Amino acid sequence: xxxxxxxxxxxxxxxxVKFIKLFFSDIFGSIKSISxxxxxxxxxxxxxxxxxxxxxxxxxNVSESDLFLVPDATTLSVLPWRPQQGKVVRFFCNIRxxxxxxxxxxxxxxxxxxxxxxxxxxxxxxxxxxxEFYLFELDAQxxxxxxxxxxxxxxxxxxxxxGENVRRSICIMLEKMGIFPETSHHESGxxxxxxxxxxxxxxxxADNLATFKTVVRTVAATNGLYASFxxxxxxxxxxxxxxxxxSLSKDGKNIFADKxxxxxxKSFIAGILxxxxxxxxxxxxxxxxxxxxxxxxxxxxxxxxxxxRSQLIxxxxxxxxxxxxxxxxxxxxxxxxxxxxxxxxxxxxxxxxKKLSLQDAVNCDLYNADSSILNKxxxxxxxxxxxxxxxxxxxxxxxxxxxxxxxxxxxFDGSFEEIY
Length: 420
Fold this sequence. Notes:
Layout: H1 5-14, E1 17-25, E2 31-36, H2 41-46, E3 49-52, E4 66-71, E5 77-78, E6 87-96, H3 107-120, E7 123-138, E8 144-148, H4 164-176, E9 181-186, E10 192-197, E11 200-201, H5 202-222, E12 225-228, E13 242-250, E14 253-254, H6 263-283, H7 289-292, E15 304-306, E16 313-315, E17 326-331, H8 337-353, H9 371-374, H10 384-392, H11 395-400, H12 403-410
Parallel strand pairs: 1-6, 15-16
Antiparallel strand pairs: 1-2, 3-4, 4-6, 5-6, 7-8, 7-10, 7-11, 7-12, 7-13, 9-10, 13-14, 13-17, 16-17
Protein backbone atom coordinates (compact mmCIF):
# COMPACT_ATOMS: atom_id res chain seq x y z
CA UNK A 1 0.00 0.00 0.00
CA UNK A 2 1.23 3.51 -0.88
CA UNK A 3 0.57 5.98 1.92
CA UNK A 4 0.15 9.75 1.93
CA UNK A 5 1.61 11.89 4.73
CA UNK A 6 -1.73 12.16 6.55
CA UNK A 7 -2.39 8.43 6.19
CA UNK A 8 1.07 7.73 7.63
CA UNK A 9 0.45 9.92 10.68
CA UNK A 10 -2.89 8.17 11.22
CA UNK A 11 -1.30 4.73 10.83
CA UNK A 12 1.43 5.57 13.34
CA UNK A 13 -1.11 6.78 15.88
CA UNK A 14 -3.42 3.77 15.52
CA UNK A 15 -0.98 0.84 15.20
CA UNK A 16 1.16 0.88 18.33
CA VAL A 17 4.26 2.26 16.59
CA LYS A 18 6.86 3.26 19.17
CA PHE A 19 9.99 3.77 17.08
CA ILE A 20 10.67 5.22 13.62
CA LYS A 21 13.89 4.65 11.66
CA LEU A 22 14.84 7.10 8.93
CA PHE A 23 16.92 5.31 6.27
CA PHE A 24 19.31 6.98 3.85
CA SER A 25 22.40 5.81 1.99
CA ASP A 26 25.89 7.23 1.86
CA ILE A 27 27.66 7.85 -1.42
CA PHE A 28 28.81 4.21 -1.58
CA GLY A 29 25.30 2.80 -1.01
CA SER A 30 25.66 1.76 2.66
CA ILE A 31 22.38 2.23 4.51
CA LYS A 32 22.50 4.66 7.43
CA SER A 33 19.73 5.36 9.93
CA ILE A 34 18.52 7.87 12.51
CA SER A 35 15.74 6.89 14.91
CA UNK A 36 12.98 9.21 16.12
CA UNK A 37 9.93 8.87 18.32
CA UNK A 38 6.43 9.02 16.78
CA UNK A 39 5.84 12.50 18.14
CA UNK A 40 8.68 13.83 15.97
CA UNK A 41 7.39 12.45 12.67
CA UNK A 42 5.23 15.44 11.68
CA UNK A 43 8.24 17.73 12.22
CA UNK A 44 10.31 15.36 10.08
CA UNK A 45 7.82 15.72 7.23
CA UNK A 46 7.71 19.51 7.58
CA UNK A 47 11.33 20.52 8.18
CA UNK A 48 13.36 17.30 8.30
CA UNK A 49 15.60 15.80 10.98
CA UNK A 50 19.16 17.11 11.04
CA UNK A 51 22.31 14.98 11.02
CA UNK A 52 26.06 15.52 10.82
CA UNK A 53 26.83 15.19 7.11
CA UNK A 54 30.57 15.53 7.70
CA UNK A 55 30.51 12.11 9.41
CA UNK A 56 29.01 10.41 6.32
CA UNK A 57 31.46 9.29 3.61
CA UNK A 58 31.24 11.47 0.51
CA UNK A 59 28.88 14.13 1.88
CA UNK A 60 29.96 17.49 3.39
CA ASN A 61 32.95 18.81 5.33
CA VAL A 62 33.03 19.99 8.94
CA SER A 63 32.62 23.66 8.04
CA GLU A 64 29.19 23.05 6.42
CA SER A 65 28.01 19.87 8.04
CA ASP A 66 24.22 20.10 8.56
CA LEU A 67 21.81 18.24 6.31
CA PHE A 68 18.21 17.17 6.95
CA LEU A 69 16.33 13.91 6.39
CA VAL A 70 12.77 14.23 5.05
CA PRO A 71 10.83 10.93 5.06
CA ASP A 72 9.21 9.68 1.86
CA ALA A 73 5.70 8.78 3.08
CA THR A 74 5.22 6.21 0.32
CA THR A 75 8.01 4.02 1.75
CA LEU A 76 6.43 3.26 5.14
CA SER A 77 7.16 -0.32 6.17
CA VAL A 78 7.02 -2.20 9.47
CA LEU A 79 10.29 -3.98 10.32
CA PRO A 80 9.01 -7.54 10.87
CA TRP A 81 12.07 -8.72 12.84
CA ARG A 82 11.40 -6.15 15.56
CA PRO A 83 8.74 -6.55 18.33
CA GLN A 84 5.18 -6.39 17.05
CA GLN A 85 4.03 -4.82 20.30
CA GLY A 86 5.56 -1.37 20.13
CA LYS A 87 6.28 -1.65 16.41
CA VAL A 88 9.31 -0.25 14.61
CA VAL A 89 8.76 1.23 11.14
CA ARG A 90 11.14 2.66 8.58
CA PHE A 91 11.04 5.27 5.84
CA PHE A 92 13.51 5.99 3.08
CA CYS A 93 14.37 9.67 3.11
CA ASN A 94 15.25 12.51 0.80
CA ILE A 95 18.16 14.70 1.91
CA ARG A 96 17.89 18.48 2.06
CA UNK A 97 20.02 21.49 2.93
CA UNK A 98 18.86 23.66 5.88
CA UNK A 99 17.11 26.04 3.46
CA UNK A 100 15.12 23.17 1.93
CA UNK A 101 17.14 22.75 -1.26
CA UNK A 102 17.78 19.13 -2.32
CA UNK A 103 21.29 17.91 -1.49
CA UNK A 104 22.92 17.23 -4.87
CA UNK A 105 24.73 14.15 -3.51
CA UNK A 106 21.44 12.42 -2.66
CA UNK A 107 21.44 9.71 -5.32
CA UNK A 108 17.96 8.50 -4.38
CA UNK A 109 16.50 11.93 -5.17
CA UNK A 110 18.42 12.04 -8.45
CA UNK A 111 17.00 8.66 -9.43
CA UNK A 112 13.48 9.83 -8.50
CA UNK A 113 13.83 12.94 -10.69
CA UNK A 114 15.11 10.78 -13.56
CA UNK A 115 12.15 8.40 -13.19
CA UNK A 116 9.75 11.36 -13.46
CA UNK A 117 11.59 12.74 -16.49
CA UNK A 118 11.41 9.37 -18.25
CA UNK A 119 7.65 9.22 -17.76
CA UNK A 120 7.24 12.72 -19.19
CA UNK A 121 8.99 11.48 -22.32
CA UNK A 122 6.41 8.70 -22.69
CA UNK A 123 8.55 5.84 -21.39
CA UNK A 124 7.96 3.42 -18.55
CA UNK A 125 10.92 1.58 -16.99
CA UNK A 126 10.72 -1.62 -14.95
CA UNK A 127 13.70 -3.19 -13.23
CA UNK A 128 14.25 -6.57 -11.58
CA UNK A 129 17.49 -7.49 -9.84
CA UNK A 130 19.27 -10.79 -9.20
CA UNK A 131 21.58 -10.48 -6.20
CA GLU A 132 24.21 -12.94 -4.96
CA PHE A 133 25.80 -13.12 -1.52
CA TYR A 134 27.83 -15.51 0.63
CA LEU A 135 27.01 -16.86 4.08
CA PHE A 136 30.02 -17.31 6.35
CA GLU A 137 30.40 -18.71 9.84
CA LEU A 138 31.29 -16.55 12.83
CA ASP A 139 34.20 -17.24 15.19
CA ALA A 140 33.97 -17.70 18.98
CA GLN A 141 34.00 -13.91 19.45
CA UNK A 142 31.17 -13.43 16.95
CA UNK A 143 33.42 -11.99 14.24
CA UNK A 144 33.11 -12.99 10.56
CA UNK A 145 35.35 -15.73 9.20
CA UNK A 146 35.99 -16.89 5.62
CA UNK A 147 34.53 -20.33 6.39
CA UNK A 148 31.47 -20.84 4.13
CA UNK A 149 28.25 -22.15 5.61
CA UNK A 150 28.39 -25.24 3.36
CA UNK A 151 30.11 -26.85 0.37
CA UNK A 152 27.02 -27.04 -1.81
CA UNK A 153 26.85 -25.97 -5.46
CA UNK A 154 24.37 -24.54 -7.92
CA UNK A 155 20.73 -25.34 -7.03
CA UNK A 156 21.74 -28.12 -4.60
CA UNK A 157 19.20 -29.32 -2.05
CA UNK A 158 19.33 -29.74 1.70
CA UNK A 159 21.02 -31.29 3.60
CA UNK A 160 23.99 -30.42 1.35
CA UNK A 161 22.55 -26.93 0.98
CA UNK A 162 22.59 -25.51 4.50
CA GLY A 163 21.31 -22.11 3.45
CA GLU A 164 17.79 -23.23 2.55
CA ASN A 165 16.15 -22.14 5.81
CA VAL A 166 18.04 -18.83 5.81
CA ARG A 167 16.81 -18.04 2.28
CA ARG A 168 13.28 -19.03 3.30
CA SER A 169 13.40 -16.64 6.27
CA ILE A 170 14.73 -13.86 4.04
CA CYS A 171 11.94 -14.33 1.49
CA ILE A 172 9.21 -14.46 4.16
CA MET A 173 10.60 -11.34 5.81
CA LEU A 174 10.64 -9.50 2.47
CA GLU A 175 7.07 -10.51 1.68
CA LYS A 176 5.94 -9.09 5.03
CA MET A 177 7.48 -5.81 3.89
CA GLY A 178 5.64 -5.88 0.56
CA ILE A 179 8.66 -7.00 -1.49
CA PHE A 180 8.18 -10.12 -3.60
CA PRO A 181 11.09 -12.38 -4.56
CA GLU A 182 10.47 -14.58 -7.60
CA THR A 183 13.07 -17.27 -6.97
CA SER A 184 15.85 -18.16 -4.54
CA HIS A 185 18.48 -20.88 -4.69
CA HIS A 186 21.99 -21.92 -3.76
CA GLU A 187 24.56 -20.47 -6.14
CA SER A 188 27.74 -22.05 -7.50
CA GLY A 189 30.12 -21.04 -4.72
CA UNK A 190 30.28 -22.78 -1.30
CA UNK A 191 27.84 -20.97 0.97
CA UNK A 192 26.77 -18.70 -1.90
CA UNK A 193 23.11 -17.74 -2.31
CA UNK A 194 20.96 -15.89 -4.84
CA UNK A 195 17.57 -14.19 -4.60
CA UNK A 196 15.83 -12.83 -7.71
CA UNK A 197 13.13 -10.16 -7.62
CA UNK A 198 9.94 -9.50 -9.50
CA UNK A 199 10.21 -6.37 -11.64
CA UNK A 200 9.05 -3.02 -10.26
CA UNK A 201 9.41 0.69 -10.98
CA UNK A 202 12.86 2.26 -11.15
CA UNK A 203 12.93 3.92 -7.71
CA UNK A 204 11.07 1.07 -6.04
CA UNK A 205 13.57 -1.47 -7.42
CA ALA A 206 16.46 0.48 -5.89
CA ASP A 207 14.67 0.82 -2.54
CA ASN A 208 13.87 -2.90 -2.60
CA LEU A 209 17.52 -3.79 -3.17
CA ALA A 210 18.58 -1.57 -0.27
CA THR A 211 15.96 -3.23 1.93
CA PHE A 212 17.05 -6.66 0.74
CA LYS A 213 20.65 -6.12 1.86
CA THR A 214 19.42 -5.00 5.29
CA VAL A 215 17.13 -8.02 5.63
CA VAL A 216 19.83 -10.47 4.51
CA ARG A 217 22.33 -9.16 7.05
CA THR A 218 19.70 -9.19 9.80
CA VAL A 219 18.52 -12.75 9.11
CA ALA A 220 22.09 -14.00 8.76
CA ALA A 221 23.05 -12.48 12.13
CA THR A 222 19.94 -14.00 13.73
CA ASN A 223 21.17 -17.40 12.52
CA GLY A 224 24.72 -16.87 13.83
CA LEU A 225 26.11 -16.14 10.33
CA TYR A 226 27.67 -13.30 8.39
CA ALA A 227 26.34 -12.25 4.98
CA SER A 228 28.95 -10.91 2.55
CA PHE A 229 28.13 -8.88 -0.54
CA UNK A 230 31.80 -8.52 -1.43
CA UNK A 231 32.37 -8.89 -5.18
CA UNK A 232 35.14 -11.45 -4.55
CA UNK A 233 35.12 -12.77 -0.97
CA UNK A 234 37.04 -15.97 -1.80
CA UNK A 235 39.94 -16.34 -4.21
CA UNK A 236 39.54 -18.70 -7.20
CA UNK A 237 35.82 -19.13 -6.48
CA UNK A 238 32.76 -17.38 -7.93
CA UNK A 239 32.31 -13.74 -7.00
CA UNK A 240 29.04 -12.03 -6.15
CA UNK A 241 27.25 -10.46 -9.09
CA UNK A 242 24.27 -8.14 -9.31
CA UNK A 243 22.39 -8.76 -12.55
CA UNK A 244 20.01 -5.97 -13.56
CA UNK A 245 17.02 -6.80 -15.78
CA UNK A 246 15.57 -3.77 -17.57
CA SER A 247 12.41 -3.47 -19.64
CA LEU A 248 11.45 -0.22 -21.32
CA SER A 249 7.98 0.53 -22.66
CA LYS A 250 6.85 3.39 -24.87
CA ASP A 251 3.16 4.15 -25.35
CA GLY A 252 2.37 0.88 -23.58
CA LYS A 253 4.58 -1.33 -25.79
CA ASN A 254 7.72 -3.07 -24.52
CA ILE A 255 10.47 -2.03 -26.94
CA PHE A 256 12.26 -5.38 -26.44
CA ALA A 257 9.18 -7.49 -27.23
CA ASP A 258 9.75 -8.06 -30.96
CA LYS A 259 12.05 -10.87 -32.09
CA UNK A 260 13.63 -8.45 -34.56
CA UNK A 261 14.77 -5.61 -32.31
CA UNK A 262 13.53 -2.13 -33.23
CA UNK A 263 15.98 0.70 -33.88
CA UNK A 264 15.01 2.20 -30.52
CA UNK A 265 15.74 -1.04 -28.66
CA LYS A 266 19.07 -1.41 -30.44
CA SER A 267 20.05 2.16 -29.58
CA PHE A 268 19.18 1.65 -25.90
CA ILE A 269 21.49 -1.38 -25.73
CA ALA A 270 24.14 0.48 -27.75
CA GLY A 271 24.05 3.37 -25.27
CA ILE A 272 24.82 1.09 -22.33
CA LEU A 273 27.61 -0.68 -24.23
CA UNK A 274 29.04 2.67 -25.36
CA UNK A 275 29.29 3.95 -21.77
CA UNK A 276 30.09 0.63 -20.07
CA UNK A 277 33.74 1.46 -19.36
CA UNK A 278 32.91 4.96 -18.12
CA UNK A 279 30.26 3.82 -15.61
CA UNK A 280 32.08 0.70 -14.41
CA UNK A 281 33.61 2.52 -11.41
CA UNK A 282 30.15 3.09 -9.93
CA UNK A 283 28.72 -0.33 -10.78
CA UNK A 284 31.89 -2.07 -9.56
CA UNK A 285 33.20 0.27 -6.85
CA UNK A 286 35.86 -1.83 -5.10
CA UNK A 287 39.32 -3.02 -6.12
CA UNK A 288 38.06 -6.57 -5.61
CA UNK A 289 35.32 -5.96 -8.18
CA UNK A 290 37.89 -6.32 -10.95
CA UNK A 291 39.12 -9.67 -9.67
CA UNK A 292 35.66 -11.06 -10.50
CA UNK A 293 35.60 -10.22 -14.21
CA UNK A 294 36.31 -12.90 -16.80
CA UNK A 295 35.53 -16.09 -14.87
CA UNK A 296 32.64 -17.99 -13.25
CA UNK A 297 30.08 -16.36 -15.59
CA UNK A 298 31.26 -12.80 -14.86
CA UNK A 299 31.78 -10.84 -18.11
CA UNK A 300 35.05 -9.39 -19.36
CA UNK A 301 34.15 -8.01 -22.77
CA UNK A 302 31.78 -5.25 -23.88
CA UNK A 303 29.44 -7.30 -26.03
CA UNK A 304 25.88 -8.56 -26.27
CA UNK A 305 23.90 -11.55 -27.46
CA UNK A 306 20.64 -13.43 -26.91
CA UNK A 307 20.57 -15.74 -23.87
CA UNK A 308 24.38 -16.15 -23.85
CA ARG A 309 25.62 -15.76 -20.24
CA SER A 310 29.19 -14.91 -21.20
CA GLN A 311 28.11 -11.50 -22.52
CA LEU A 312 27.89 -8.15 -20.73
CA ILE A 313 24.32 -7.74 -21.97
CA UNK A 314 22.05 -10.56 -22.95
CA UNK A 315 18.41 -10.86 -23.96
CA UNK A 316 16.99 -13.64 -21.75
CA UNK A 317 14.35 -16.00 -23.08
CA UNK A 318 10.91 -14.66 -22.16
CA UNK A 319 7.62 -16.53 -21.79
CA UNK A 320 5.65 -13.48 -22.97
CA UNK A 321 6.23 -10.14 -24.67
CA UNK A 322 5.59 -8.37 -21.37
CA UNK A 323 8.56 -10.22 -19.83
CA UNK A 324 10.98 -9.29 -22.62
CA UNK A 325 13.99 -7.42 -21.28
CA UNK A 326 17.72 -6.98 -21.33
CA UNK A 327 19.99 -8.25 -18.57
CA UNK A 328 23.10 -6.27 -17.62
CA UNK A 329 25.56 -8.72 -16.04
CA UNK A 330 28.49 -6.44 -15.20
CA UNK A 331 27.56 -4.88 -11.84
CA UNK A 332 28.16 -6.26 -8.34
CA UNK A 333 26.24 -5.81 -5.07
CA UNK A 334 28.86 -3.54 -3.48
CA UNK A 335 27.52 -0.70 -5.65
CA UNK A 336 25.22 2.11 -4.62
CA UNK A 337 21.98 0.78 -6.08
CA UNK A 338 20.60 4.28 -6.81
CA UNK A 339 23.73 5.37 -8.66
CA UNK A 340 23.97 2.11 -10.61
CA UNK A 341 20.39 2.21 -11.89
CA UNK A 342 20.65 5.93 -12.65
CA UNK A 343 23.73 5.45 -14.84
CA UNK A 344 22.40 2.37 -16.64
CA UNK A 345 19.11 4.04 -17.56
CA UNK A 346 20.75 7.32 -18.52
CA UNK A 347 23.26 5.48 -20.70
CA UNK A 348 20.48 3.62 -22.51
CA UNK A 349 18.45 6.78 -23.04
CA UNK A 350 21.57 8.56 -24.30
CA UNK A 351 21.84 5.83 -26.92
CA UNK A 352 18.23 6.45 -28.00
CA UNK A 353 18.67 10.23 -28.12
CA LYS A 354 21.81 9.93 -30.23
CA LYS A 355 20.37 7.06 -32.31
CA LEU A 356 23.50 4.99 -31.72
CA SER A 357 24.01 1.91 -33.88
CA LEU A 358 24.28 -1.44 -32.14
CA GLN A 359 27.35 -3.55 -32.79
CA ASP A 360 26.80 -7.10 -34.06
CA ALA A 361 25.86 -9.76 -31.52
CA VAL A 362 28.66 -12.07 -30.41
CA ASN A 363 27.09 -15.51 -30.51
CA CYS A 364 29.77 -17.62 -28.90
CA ASP A 365 31.06 -18.61 -25.47
CA LEU A 366 33.56 -15.87 -24.65
CA TYR A 367 35.14 -17.90 -21.86
CA ASN A 368 36.40 -20.39 -24.44
CA ALA A 369 36.50 -18.28 -27.61
CA ASP A 370 39.45 -18.12 -29.96
CA SER A 371 41.80 -15.12 -29.60
CA SER A 372 40.90 -14.08 -33.15
CA ILE A 373 37.42 -13.22 -31.79
CA LEU A 374 38.44 -11.85 -28.40
CA ASN A 375 41.08 -9.49 -29.79
CA LYS A 376 38.38 -7.62 -31.70
CA UNK A 377 36.31 -6.91 -28.58
CA UNK A 378 36.67 -4.00 -26.20
CA UNK A 379 37.25 -5.00 -22.57
CA UNK A 380 35.76 -3.73 -19.36
CA UNK A 381 38.36 -1.99 -17.15
CA UNK A 382 41.04 -4.40 -15.96
CA UNK A 383 41.49 -2.67 -12.60
CA UNK A 384 39.94 -0.19 -10.21
CA UNK A 385 42.59 2.33 -11.27
CA UNK A 386 41.61 2.04 -14.93
CA UNK A 387 37.90 2.25 -14.11
CA UNK A 388 38.49 5.38 -12.05
CA UNK A 389 40.40 7.04 -14.88
CA UNK A 390 37.65 6.21 -17.40
CA UNK A 391 34.94 7.57 -15.11
CA UNK A 392 36.59 10.80 -14.05
CA UNK A 393 37.50 11.68 -17.65
CA UNK A 394 34.00 10.93 -18.96
CA UNK A 395 31.81 13.82 -20.15
CA UNK A 396 28.81 11.50 -19.91
CA UNK A 397 29.47 10.70 -16.24
CA UNK A 398 30.02 14.39 -15.48
CA UNK A 399 26.66 15.17 -17.10
CA UNK A 400 24.83 12.67 -14.86
CA UNK A 401 26.57 12.68 -11.48
CA UNK A 402 27.12 15.67 -9.18
CA UNK A 403 30.53 17.09 -8.40
CA UNK A 404 30.34 15.96 -4.76
CA UNK A 405 30.04 12.33 -5.88
CA UNK A 406 32.87 12.58 -8.39
CA UNK A 407 35.08 14.27 -5.80
CA UNK A 408 34.42 11.48 -3.29
CA UNK A 409 35.40 8.79 -5.79
CA UNK A 410 38.45 10.78 -6.87
CA UNK A 411 39.69 10.51 -3.27
CA PHE A 412 38.77 6.82 -2.96
CA ASP A 413 41.28 3.99 -3.49
CA GLY A 414 38.83 1.09 -3.82
CA SER A 415 39.82 -0.63 -0.59
CA PHE A 416 36.70 0.24 1.43
CA GLU A 417 35.27 -3.08 2.64
CA GLU A 418 33.43 -2.30 5.89
CA ILE A 419 30.10 -4.16 5.57
CA TYR A 420 30.80 -6.03 2.33
